[in-house]
Amino acid sequence: MSGVQNITVLEADDDIRLDKWFKRHFPAVAFGRLSKLMRTGQVRLDGKRVKVSDRVQAGQVVRVPPLGEEERSKTAPKKVHRKELNAEDVQRMQNMILFEDDHVIVLNKEPGIPVQGGTNTHKHIDGMLEALMRPGDTERPKLVHRLDKDTSGVLLLARTSKIAKSLAGAFKTRDTEKLYWALLKGVPQWWDGKIDNHMTKAPGAHGEKMIECDQHEDGAKRAITYFRVVEAANKQAAWIVFQPRTGRTHQLRLHATCIETPIVGDGKYGGQEAFLGGLISNKLHLHARSLTFPHPAGGDMTVTAPLPRHMKNSWDVLGFDESQHVNPFEEEF
């Protein structure tokens, strides 16, 4: 029998159900067995009793009781050897590196590649992390947070589990600053402001889709985003910078529709109104431009990711200068 484990929830697992968290990390624990462990108080979240439907948040601690030998052996992560990755995948991952040292790796994630696997998803960042290991490393790099499949930009990884826990705590306590660039269809009525509302998963939605809701509705989560328009192309489109203060699923995509200007290419939330046509790509125009975080070796670090090709092309077509602005919130935060 193994001893009690107290495991910190990482940003990559933020806001998922507790039973799904166990399925990811302890797949050999059957649902019936898990339910019993929760009913008897052996599984706890931040020291409190839980139900299988409760959701975990980054930075919380899950108490995992002693598990049987069979359950433990099946939960051990499989060693992925570099030879199992083809040369193309290795090169693809290496090309995404913006920065790396003994503590962290920062990628400029391509649009169109998922961060983690799922149903019918066989190629993803998490499955190719072996390509980022160095000779002598004893652990694969660890995801600290997530980006949507079609969102590009800064993605932070930790070299070790210990560092990942520390960084996940920084995301939880908002000791990080994330800036996203987007192209909007149309120009918001206000060029700067704050969106502060509640959101929940749309009933009957296929896949993940969020809707605005009352704070008292089941599953409601508060979502806060600051925004500032940098430049507009007549009334056709606007370059906007988002600064999310919470990290809800599809938060920025929903918030863009709350100010009646969907993100270009976001048919899921904006419908046909989200496409500009002409020389502007139909791909999603949402990019994690920069991330400021407390570096494990001390001090704050900011990493900036250049625009992906389709957004750079749109900036050129619309006459926007990518080098013009770094952080329009700098004086305020």
Question: How do the strands and helices of this protein lay out in sequence?
Answer:
Layout lengths: L4 E4 L9 H8 L5 H9 L4 E2 L2 E2 L11 E4 L4 H7 L11 H9 L1 E4 L3 E6 L32 E2 L8 E7 L2 H12 L4 E9 L6 E10 L8 E4 L7 E13 L3 E8 L6 H8 L8 H4 L15 E9 L5 E5 L4 H10 L15
Parallel strand pairs: 8-14
Antiparallel strand pairs: 1-4, 2-3, 2-4, 5-6, 6-8, 7-8, 9-13, 9-14, 10-11, 10-12, 12-13, 14-15
Short description:
The chain contains 8 helices and 15 strands. The chain is of the alpha+beta class and 333 residues long.
Describe, in plain words, how this protein is organized in 3D.
With 333 residues, the protein is α+β, with helices and mostly antiparallel strands. It folds into 3 domains: 71 residues, Structural Genomics Hypothetical 15.5 Kd Protein In mrcA-pckA Intergenic Region, Chain A; 89 residues, Pseudouridine synthase (2-Layer Sandwich), CATH 3.30.2350.10; 142 residues, Pseudouridine synthase (2-Layer Sandwich), CATH 3.30.2350. The protein has 8 helices and 15 strands. Strands 5, 6, 7, 8, 9, 10, 11, 12, 13, 14 and 15 form an 11-stranded mixed sheet that branches. The chain has a 4-stranded antiparallel sheet with strand order 1-4-2-3. Strand 10 and strand 11 form a beta hairpin. The radius of gyration is 21 Å and the shape is globular. The termini are far apart.
